[in-house]
Amino acid sequence: DIIVVATRNMGKVREFRHAFAALGKEVLSLHEYPEAPEVVEDGSTFRENAFKKAKQIGDFLNLPVLADDSGLCVELLDDAPGIYSARYAGEHGNDAANNAKLLEELIRIRQGDDTEQPLLSPARFVCALVLYDPASGRSVETEGEVAGWITSDTAGAGGFGYDPLFYVPQYKRTMAELNVEEKQRISHRGEALRRLMEKLN
Length: 201
Ligand code: ITT
Ligand code: NA
What we know:
Keywords: Hydrolase, Magnesium, Metal-binding, Nucleotide metabolism, Nucleotide-binding. Homodimer. Its cofactor is Mg(2+). By secondary structure, the chain is α+β, with helices and mostly antiparallel strands. It has one domain: Maf protein (Alpha-Beta Complex). It is built from 5 helices and 8 strands; from the N terminus they run βαβαββαββββαα. It has helices spanning about 10-20, 45-60, 95-110, 180-185, 190-200; strands at about 1-5, 25-30, 65-75, 80, 120-135, 140-150, 165-170, 175. Strands 1, 2, 3, 4, 5, 6, 7 and 8 form an 8-stranded mixed beta sheet that branches. A hairpin with a 5-residue loop joins strand 3 (about 65-75) and strand 4 (about 80). The longest helix has 16 residues, at about 45-60.
């Protein structure tokens, strides 16, 4: 059994592979479909962008596809970078540049606070999933979230994106210090996936 995930982000692919392996499903991504179009993500919400990706890629491939639009909302930045998380520092998908910019912004905002503590701001990851079937034109949509803190004590080499600077209170570690299993249990993507399975059953 195969499931096509409409993403080019290998960090997401790794997590979907792990989740669907447990159900005996193999995951294909857009790396296996290089002819698939680049979807313009001009929606104003995660959900709208996930729907655009699922619909345009599903119609193009004429296959049911799952799309993920996700990002990081930081309280002290009025929920930025949000839907712009992948290109916060300007260049799409440059994790190192995005992380550097996020810490710079927060350290600037926190300047003058007489605290030395590394936890700079509450934040949350959000994930919108849309499963779209071109044969019926129907879609199933879910969302998941996880709350944590942006930390200047960055750590870990796992995960992707903003994981090294996202401190997870439940584990007292950053998201990048968790293995795939641990991340899935608490993450925005894990929660959205569990809700998707519930809706499909
Ligand atoms: P696709 O559109 O091809 O799926 P993308 O990386 O452009 O890939 P998004 O537009 O959804 O996907 O942007 C998601 C960004 O949000 C991603 O690049 C990370 O910077 C951040 N992000 C999302 N989920 C994350 C996670 O689990 N851990 C760390 N950062 C995450
Ligand atoms: Na996006």
